[in-house]
Amino acid sequence: MLHFVTGNAGKVREAQSLLDADVSQFDFDYTEIQSPELEAIAARGAREAYREVGEPVFVDDSGLFVDALDGFPGPYSAYVEGTVGIERVWRLVEPEDDHGAAFRAVVAYCDGTDEVRTFEGRVTGEIVAPRGDGGFGYDPIFEHDGRTFAEMDPEAKNAVSHRGRALETFAEWYDTR
Ligand code: ITT
Ligand code: NA
């Protein structure tokens, strides 16, 4: 049994659809340090979550990096989603010539026996007016290959997404460790 320590049910659905191992959500609010680096945030979080749960855990720290906004909201994506909201992020990007953006995710695993392991995934796309009602978070305004992530089912999104790639790399390591 692997505990995915997160308050985000959308992340859990994607991990369950991709990983062979049994994944259960453990909703514990670990400290998210103020850092420009997703990897540092995730690694610290995984250590703290392991101390809380006492069994193998992983966490996911992720964010949307908009090119025309110099990578904003990046590590502050959750805060910006909850305050400004995705519709206004779209409005910020709309007048820009460059709508390019990337989602990044870092999955960090800790089982107490070894150093924390981290696995990263990245996907590029375009910021568009909101479309679709699947997924979560910024999915309606992130278009990849003609569809927003909110227009894809979890399998299609996992096949190309930042989290799908990070989880894929994690699973390869986990299965052969
Ligand atoms: P936990 O920290 O409890 O896991 P969270 O949603 O706060 O949940 P983060 O701190 O990693 O997660 O913040 C990630 C932000 O980026 C948050 O606003 C998400 O909605 C957004 N995000 C990450 N991956 C996404 C995805 O696949 N699709 C849409 N938005 C995503
Ligand atoms: Na969070």
How would you characterize this protein structure?
40% of the residues are buried. Strands 2-1-3-4-5-6-7 form a seven-stranded mixed beta sheet, sandwiched between helices. It is α/β, with parallel strands linked by helices. The chain has a single domain (2-175), classed as Maf protein, CATH 3.90.950.10. The longest helix is centred in the first third of the chain and has 16 residues, at 38-53. Strand 6 (142-144) and strand 7 (147-148) form a beta hairpin. The mean pLDDT is 96. It is built from six helices and seven strands. Helix 5 packs across helix 6 (162-175). The structure holds inosine 5'-triphosphate (ITT) and sodium ion. Residues 32, 78 line the site of sodium ion (NA). Sodium ion binds next to loops. Pfam families: Ham1p_like. One of its GO terms (cellular component) is cytoplasm. Keywords: Hydrolase.
Number of domains: 1
Could you give the order of the helices and strands?
EHEHEHHEEEEHH
Low-confidence stretches: none
What ions, cofactors and ligands are bound?
inosine 5'-triphosphate, sodium ion
- The CATH architecture name reads Alpha-Beta Complex
Number of strands: 7
**Sheet of most strands:** 7 strands, mixed
Distance between the termini: 15 Å
**Rg over CA atoms:** 16 Å
Q: What oligomeric arrangement do these chains adopt?
A: single chain
Give the strand order of the largest sheet, numbering strands 1, 2, ... along the chain. Answer: 2-1-3-4-5-6-7
User: Which structural class should the secondary elements be placed in?
Assistant: alpha/beta
The proportion of residues forming helix, as a percent range, comes to 25-40%
H/I helix tally: 6
Report the average pLDDT across residues: 96
Overall morphology: globular
CATH topology: Maf protein
Q: Please report the first level of CATH classification, the CATH class.
A: Alpha Beta
Strand content: 25-35%
Keywords: Hydrolase
Family: Belongs to the HAM1 NTPase family.
Pfam families: Ham1p_like (PF01725)
GO molecular function: nucleoside triphosphate diphosphatase activity
